[in-house]
Every structure is written in structure tokens, then in C-alpha cells.
Amino acid sequence: MSKIKRINSTADVVHEVRYGLKGVLLYFLPVPILIAAIISLIQGNFWKTIVLGTSFAGFTVAAIIARHGLKIESSFERKKFARAPGTPYKTVAAIILAITTGLTAYFTTPQPLFSSILMGGAALLGFMFSYGLDPRKNKTGSVSLGVTAEEVIDALEAAEIKISGLENAKRSIKNLDLKRRLDRIIDKAREILNVIEEDPRDLQRARKFLKVYLSGAERVTQKYAETHRRDATTDTLDANFIRVLESIEETFDTQHTRLKENDRFDLDVQIEVLETQLKQEGIT
């Protein structure tokens, strides 16, 4: 899955906050174990310190993996079209949590083996009831004739990768005006992806747009960022980059409107214009 965040409404913000806080409690649960490990170390009980320290590490690893799984699930749940996570992070976290709980009970308390296993099982069930397990089926939304759910998912994921490339390149650019321009381009690109998600029929008309505009914007920004990192920029290069960004930003706004209005003719014409400009600038 791509590392993507698209926040476009109050509901999305609430969703982000809810998932942002989900799983935080897992980091606090092993704090008493850490305190006990410190006390054991002070008392000179090194065996117990090692056991408790290992236990704390196990709980912490489980929390980190669980939070990562919850982050991926948050992105998955927000989308109408998405591929199910390939790695079941929450399931892995639940298993680590259960094993750590059982071993901690067995080695640090006078619990028999069977009781320790039951405690591990209880931890597993508690995690499942609190956070659930990982999504295993793709979200296919509502597709129309002429396009499949797999095509929509592939196109959206490919576009998100390009947007991530834009974001990564932007971090190397120090010019605040250029950063703001790139932010607007990125925001508009995600709005266009939302249009496609809402009506997959737009994918057929948006394929060339995504290929020319988004790929062109990513390539030119990465090239400029690389030159910027080497302190090899020139006034001519800066002017060319600004001119291309202005064209891309203006056309992104127009294309967003055209997609929503289902105006294919103007969309294709303006794509051809930008494609010519990118070739003239040596970008495509």
C-alpha cells in the first residue's frame, strides 16, 4: 500500500484524530514492568531485570507494530477503492502481545504454565476485541462499465506514489514560494483522485492526465530538487521551473473542473498543450 493521506472534510479530520489516538494505550501498559525492572536492577537481581527488560521490549515492539497496522487500516478505511494490507501487522502485534504476556506471567510470577497460557490467550482476545484484526479483502467500491476495481486501485496507487515523490522532492527545496506552489499542486492532485474515487468512469478520461501531468510534475520537481541539493541552480533554471509549475498548477485547476463537468474535449486539448511544453523544457 502506498503511504497516503487524503484529508478533505471534517469527517476525514475526525477519522484521522480517532485513528491517531487508537492504540496509544499499548505504550503505557508495560510501564509498570519497566518500573519493576529498574527496581530489580537496583536490588541487584539481574536475572529478574533481564526477564522484565525483555518483557518490556516485547510489549513495546507489539505496540509499535500495532500502531503501524492501525495507521495502514486508517488509510484503507477512508478510501472507497483500496487493496487490503499485504502484511497483517495487527495480527502480528496481537501474537507478540499474547506470547509476551504468557512468558512474563510464567517467569515473573508463581503462575503454573497452564495459567500463564490462559493469560496470554486473554491478552490476545483483549487485543482483538479492542482493535480487531487486519482487513483481508480489497475494497472495490462501486465500479461502472468499462473499468474494473483492480484498474481503479492500480491507477490510484500509482498516482499516490507519484504524489509521494513530489512531496519527498519538495522537502529538498528551500524556496518558500516554490513549496507553496507544490503544496497547491499536491492538494489539487488529491482532489482529482477523489473525483475518480467518487466516479470511476472518470478514470478512462483521466488516464492520460495522470500520466502526463502527474508524472511530468514529479520528474521536473525531482530534477530541480536534485540540482538544488547540489547548489547548482541558475536563474534560467529557476525561471523555467517556476514557469512549468505555473502551467501545471493552472492546468490542474482546469482539469479538476473539466473532470467534474465531464468535458473530455477541453481536457485532451489542454493535456496536449502541457505535454508539448514539458517536451520543450526537456522534461519528457
How would you portray this structure in words?
- The structure is a single chain.
- This protein has 284 residues and is mainly alpha-helical.
- The chain has helices at 10-21, 25-28, 31-43, 46-78, 89-108, 113-131, 149-170, 176-198, 202-229, 235-261, 264-280; strands at 81-82, 139-140.
- It has a two-stranded antiparallel ribbon.
- The longest helix is centred in the first third of the chain and has 33 residues, at 46-78.
- It is elongated, with a radius of gyration of 25 Å.
- It starts with 9 loop residues before the first helix and ends with a helix.
**Helical content band:** over 70%
Can you write the helix and strand succession as a string? HHHHEHHEHHHHH
| Biggest β-sheet description | 2 strands, antiparallel
Number of domains: 2
Structural class: mainly alpha
Average pLDDT works out at 80
Distance between the termini: 27 Å
Sheet-strand content, in percent, reads under 5%
The number of distinct β-strands equals 2
| Cα gyration radius (Å) | 25 Å
Strand order of the largest sheet: 1-2
Low-confidence stretches: 1-9, 263-267
Contiguous helical run count: 11
Q: Identify the overall geometry.
A: elongated
Would you spell out the secondary-structure blueprint of this structure?
Elements: H1 10-21, H2 25-28, H3 31-43, H4 46-78, E1 81-82, H5 89-108, H6 113-131, E2 139-140, H7 149-170, H8 176-198, H9 202-229, H10 235-261, H11 264-280
Antiparallel strand pairs: 1-2
In short:
By secondary structure, the protein is mostly helical. Helices cover 77% and strands 1% of the residues.
